[in-house]
Design brief:
The protein has about 500 residues and is mainly alpha-helical. It is built from 22 helices and eleven strands. The longest helix has 24 residues.
């Protein structure tokens, strides 16, 4: 059996979009499932649209997602170079083969002439396609115009009628009429290849067996298939993935929120959660598998016949939910490593050195908080009172009975007194001290526990109170209780004056 070889071929005109990331993922899953080779090729011939840092961002995003390539930038391989800008000789040779065989021809039409042609077709209600004006120029006229220094494009010569059938692994047979196509450009006047031509030459040279890409490229496929046949190349198998739509089923864009991998990273999503989410955008696992899938599970069951033909709908809330599920089960050391930049950004720790010095404490705090948050920024904010002094108290906590119940400062003082006497300050002993006091006072547990939580954290919601106490330590607990008592007394005094 022919080895499975797939490619992901982004154009570095922007950051890695969610759609591009899913295309890369499905290629990666397919080749890993079939013990094949995953090729990364950078299609950087469109110099006018290139962005300086896009290549680095694309490579970094793929690495961060764990989508390792077997051949390509940084890896090398037997079929390089893996940047199209370095493969001009391949395109020039293939183009010359087509021209000499009469399957392609020089076109000297100017942009102004083509614009007039299109406007005339538009006014007549015709399809906008090249008329073929230069299709039958004599060799003498071609030589004459070249001698004048004119820079032509090279166009492929398509049949004027008939049809071409694309056999797609997801969509089945798709028929295109040649009347709907035109003699498209394969080499530009500056000597650079057009997209449809370059990818055919490269896919053949790199022995790509399966072209798995977005649905938007389906309209390019009959052109590319014709080029394969014209050049005498064996056809790869095509598979076109459905579109990803916004929640309102419009085209996904910036107005719908984060759309690039780097933006999802900045939102505080874990790479495995993003991979899991992208896997579910257009591919259906079995009911037994559920929705939480490891890469290994997906690889073992992935197949193109389970890829949906209908558009997938982007749902940020689903991704955030998945992220929360991953945060609960994530390797603790790795979760801390992902969290540290967000802790630094939030001003909770000063830098890498402090993170290293407080590593064990960070692990303990994050382990207690991880089940209560869904993103890394949420985790960072939840960590704040473990690293910084409490400077205020949630207003809703003050308005409730937590700080307003009668004699609450007395209760907190009694709780503080009991905690001060605890020698072995662990969960069992701190809880016993509080439970004993609650029983002696014949009060409900919440009457003491809720205001204590607010005093220690400044918040009405936290992990278990006694876990918080132990992580804060005895000294900080006593200090914060004393501070809260002073705050309550001062607040009451102000109201009495008014």
């Amino acid at each position: 059996m022919k080895q499975v070889r797939v490619r992901f071929a982004p154009s570095p005109t922007g950051y890695l979009h969610i759609g591009g990331a899913r295309t890369a993922l499905f290629n990666w899953l397919f080749t890993r499932q079939n013990n094949g080779r995953f090729v990364l090729r950078i299609e950087d011939t469109d110099s006018e649209r290139l962005k300086e840092d896009s290549v680095k961002q694309i490579l970094d995003s793929l690495k961060w997602l764990g989508l390792d390539w077997d051949e390509g930038p940084g890896k090398g391989g037997d079929f390089g170079p893996y940047y199209q800008s370095q493969r001009q000789d391949f395109y020039a040779a293939a183009a010359e083969t087509l021209r000499k065989s009469g399957k392609a021809y020089y076109c000297f039409c100017t942009e102004e002439e083509l614009a007039k042609e299109r406007e005339s077709q538009r006014q007549k209600g015709l399809s906008l396609r090249y008329s073929g004006k230069c299709r039958d120029l004599s060799d003498a006229k071609v030589r004459e115009r070249l001698a004048q220094g004119l820079k032509p494009v090279l166009r492929i010569k398509l049949p004027v009628s008939g049809q071409i059938v694309v056999r797609d692994l997801i969509r089945g047979a798709v028929t295109f009429q040649y009347e709907e196509l035109d003699d498209f450009i394969i080499m530009k006047s500056n000597g650079l290849p057009a997209y449809n031509f370059a990818c055919v030459v490269d896919d053949h040279a790199m022995k790509i067996s399966h072209v798995i890409r977005a649905e938007e490229h389906l309209s390019n496929t009959p052109k590319q298939q014709f080029l394969y046949e014209a050049l005498g190349y064996a056809l790869p198998q095509f598979a076109h993935l459905s579109m990803i739509l916004a929640p309102d089923r419009s085209k996904l864009s910036k107005r719908h929120g984060a759309t690039s991998v780097s933006e999802f990273k900045d939102l505080g999503c874990l790479p495995e959660a993003i991979i899991n989410y992208l896997t579910l955008l257009g591919w259906s696992p079995s009911e037994e598998q559920g929705e939480i899938l490891s890469s290994e599970q997906t690889i073992s069951s992935f197949s193109l016949d389970k890829v949906s033909k209908t558009a997938a709908v982007y749902d940020l809330q689903k991704l955030i939910w998945l992220n929360g599920q991953y945060m609960m089960k994530y390797d603790l050391e790795q979760l801390v490593a992902h969290a540290v930049p967000f802790l630094m950004q939030a001003g909770i720790i000063s830098g890498e050195l402090e993170a290293e010095q407080k590593h064990d404490y960070l692990c303990s705090v994050i382990n207690v908080l991880r089940a209560r948050v869904k993103t890394l920024p949420e985790l960072a904010e939840a960590c704040r009172y473990f690293f910084q002094d409490v400077v205020d108290y949630e207003e809703k906590g003050q308005k409730k009975y937590f700080f307003k119940q009668e004699d609450v400062e007395t209760l907190l003082a009694q709780g503080r007194e009991r905690l001060a006497k605890v020698e072995d300050f662990d969960i069992e002993n701190t809880e016993k001290a509080y439970r004993d006091l609650i029983e002696e006072l014949q009060i409900k547990g919440g009457q003491l526990i809720h205001p204590t939580r607010l005093a220690l954290t400044g918040r009405t919601v936290s992990p278990g109170l006694f876990e918080v106490m132990v992580l804060l330590g005895k000294e900080r607990c006593l200090e914060r209780l004393a501070q809260a008592i002073r705050f309550i007394k001062a607040t009451k005094a102000e109201k009495e004056e008014v």
